[in-house]
Amino acid sequence: MPLIDAHCHVSPLWFEPVETLLFQMERNGVEKAVLTQILGQFDNSYQRDCVRAHPHRFVSIGAVNAAEEGAADQVATLAAEGMAGLRLRPDARSPGDDPLAIWRAAASSGLVISCGGASEQLLAPEFAELVDTFPDMPIVVEHLGGWTRPDCDRSAETWNGILGLARFPNIAIKIPALG
Q1: What DSSP line would sit under 87-147, residue for residue?
Q2: What phi and psi, each to the nearest 5 degrees, are found at residue 83?
Q3: Tens digit of each residue's pLDDT (9 = 90 or more) over 2-42
């Protein structure tokens, strides 16, 4: 069975360059990796270039600033350039008349959403409504539903809420590093 790392960060300025990741992948028998944009970073050109240079090794989960005018148009452009998914926070909303424009753009482009944030955001009724609005769009909840974040209360109620996300057929949850 091939090993795939579902959440990697690369950057020439932050984290490590792609060459270091490729070395680590070779050394550890990892066949492919998902390059996940760093939160708050919206220049996806480095990831795009990495995917173009190594199309059989990488796919890209990019990011746009959902609060900016024109972000939904950016999503369509990035998808046309080969971006496989979009990283959004659960409370990401677009300006203007359609607060879900960014989510609609991702859905119409056939993108997977990589969604990270605090557990309380992921367990909020607004997130459940959002997931119900896009039942055919795959949403991958990052970092065990926020359980590993320092702002998580780690209560039984929160844990059961995270497990309760399984009620949505379009949600998957990433298990973070176990080290």
Answers
A1: EE-TT---SSS-TTHHHHHHHHTTPEEEE---HHHHTSHHHHHHHHH-TTS-EEE-GGGGT
A2: -65, 135
A3: 899 999 999 988 889 999 999 999 999 999 999 999 989 99
- 146's tokens: 């926020």
What contacts 24+ positions apart, CB below 8 Å, involve 11-18?
A: 11/38, 11/41, 11/46, 12/46, 14/38, 14/41, 18/46, 18/50, 18/53, 18/54, 18/58
Q: Which of 163, 94, 66 is nearest to 123 (CA)?
A: 163
On whether the CB atoms of residues 87 and 61 are closer than 8 A, the answer is yes
pTM of the model: 0.93
Tokens standing for 39? 């939160």
Residue 141: Cβ-neighbour burial (10 angstroms; 0-12, 13-18, 19+): buried
Task: Report how far residue 55's alpha carbon sits from residue 170's, in angstroms, rounded to the nearest whole number.
Answer: 26
Element (H, E) at 61: strand 58-62
Residue 140 CA, distance from chain mean position: 7
How far is residue 113's CA from residue 140's CA, in Å, rounded to a whole number? 6
